[in-house]
Amino acid sequence: MLTNTNLFKQTSFSVLLALCVLIPARAADTTGLPRETAKQHDARMAWWRDARFGMFIHWGLYSEAAGYWNGQPTSGAGEWIMSDMRIPRAQYETLAPRFDPVKFDADQWAETAHNAGMKYLVITSKHHEGFCMFKTAATDYNVVDAAPWHTDPLQALSKACRRHGIKFCVYYSIMDWHSPDQAPAYNPTSFVPGQKEAYIQYMETELKELITQYHPAVLWFDGQWMNGWTDEDGQRLYGYLRALDPKLIINNRIKGAGDYETPEQYIPPNGLPGRDWETCMTMNDTWGYKRDDNNWKSTQTLIRNVVDIASKGGNYLLNVGPTGEGLIPDASIERLTEIGRWMKVNGVAIYGTSASPFTRQLPWGRCTSRTSGHNTILYLHVFDWPADDKLVVPLSNKIRRASLLVDRSTPLRMENGEDGVTIFLPQHAPDEISSTVVVKLDGAPEVITVPILQNNDGTILLRASDAALHGSQIQYEPGPGHDNIGYWFNPDDSADWTFRVSHPGEFRITAEIAAPGPTSFQVSVVAQGGRHPMAPLSLLNETKQIGKADITQGYFDYKTVTMGRFQIPAAGDVTLAVHPVKDGWQPMNIRSIKLEPAR
To answer: Domain map of the chain by residue range?
Structure first.
């Protein structure tokens, strides 16, 4: 994968590039892209869009190294050890005779994915290190010829996936630190002068082998940021591969073409409307196995990521990094087993669903949807079970029926009101992580536009993506390491948020701020009259306070800054605004602002 602790700029560039790549052209052009109508494209993508959840597997010689070289630990990701520790090719090759994963069990891997509720699996056929994890005629530097194991794991795994109803897919890196056609400069490497075409032929040979021998449903490219690889190269390769298999799906990291986008370690706050996308993410901090990396995400985080991504119209590709012996770590197995239990009950609210009709994030959880004829089914994923057992859904529709997914035979009582429909829930949540309420509507959802709502615990989270921005330069910056308000160079520019307070009182306000220089700003909180933003406003009270942000390490180094304490005396709509103080202003980024009840 691209991510590495020393590669933030390349990570940002890759994802920004990903956001700019569109679905390939529908008609043949000079790039050689295949002819395809919109209907044909939708048919090709249909299974992938329905799947929503897949397993990523990073496995190679770096798994044998396990994050160590000559007894010294790498500071970077496990799969980047060759680059990070500047290991010469000849020395790195000594890992191959040690790679003997006799504990590998293809059926156990496929069954683990299946039991977790995953619908497809993507495994590294060749990562940046250049070692091929399949039998290839293009080089002896492969797992069958160069390792004592003499086994082709892709052949075994492709068959096991089909036995367990999993779509088999493969990853392939364009960048290759071992290839004689690329300079040994690691990241980013370049083609040796005059050798680019030779490498492309090598790559086409291997990719044809992968397609004809293993029949993957997806080819997942990476390493496209290497010097000398162009959009035209990617378009040519895309056409070559689609000619070999017209049903093949290819991600956007081929460069210049691609069927879907690939934000890495990051969930776009508002999804990527109108585009197919997939967030790939690790369970801990590294993709390839690294024995010292025990910073595991909780099961709650992983399940809520599945829900969050589906609610925004995306897929979740969750990684495991097997050991050099061929074992998926126990910590990964435990979490996948727990995810599987949840998916067995709630999977109908994930698979084949569409994004939430609510443009603003719901304070209690998320929503996925499904169209059934002229009617709509909404799946309300409740993360924070309301203390008063009242779930407010911002809809003006009269809901035909609501029930818990675990008890669909018992209808829930409902009332329509000014803020939407209130659904009266049982006292206890069926699931502590995420419980699902099924709502059936006649026709399409009629969404009420409301401000940001206060959470059940009394907090209010103001995200950068929800801000109203005013000025000549200030703008929202999407992407990993970003998701912030930036380009705040003009002290006349400002940002504000309107939110609804249901439980008033005194609040402590903090913000995530990155400020390369000391800066000052004014925070104002204005309580508005009128229940909705469109109603006539009358100023009830305004409180102002000067805040300061200390120096951070740059525009990507965020610290939590206290912005003050404010009294919000009554329930209603409130606007919080941030204005620079011109005499002490230097540019800063804001990622989010949080109001917490002062206790």
So the answer is: 8-349, 365-450, 460-597
Tokens of 393: 């859904």
pTM listed for this prediction: 0.88
Q: What is the distance between the alpha carbons of residues 18 and 224, in angstroms, rounded to a whole number?
A: 11
Enumerate residue ranges in the chain where pLDDT < 50: 3-30, 530-542
Closest CA to 67 of 93, 85, 88: 85
**Residue showing tokens 């950068």:** 464
Distance from C-alpha of 253 to C-alpha of 285, rounded to nearest angstrom: 22
Check if the beta carbon of residue 52 is closer than 8 Å to that of residue 259.
no
Which pLDDT tens digit goes with each residue over 22-36? Answer: 333 333 344 567 789
Greatest distance between any 2 Cα atoms in the chain: 78
User: How much is the pLDDT for 548?
Assistant: 63
In 312-423, which residue ranges form alpha helices assigned H by DSSP?
330-346
Amino acid at position 547, single letter: G
CATH number for 365-450 (one of 3.60.15.10, 3.20.20.140, 3.30.413.10, 2.60.40.1180): it is: 2.60.40.1180
Neighbour-count burial of 24, counting CB atoms closer than 10 A to its CB (0-12 exposed, 13-18 middle, 19+ buried): buried
The pLDDT value recorded for residue 546 is 57
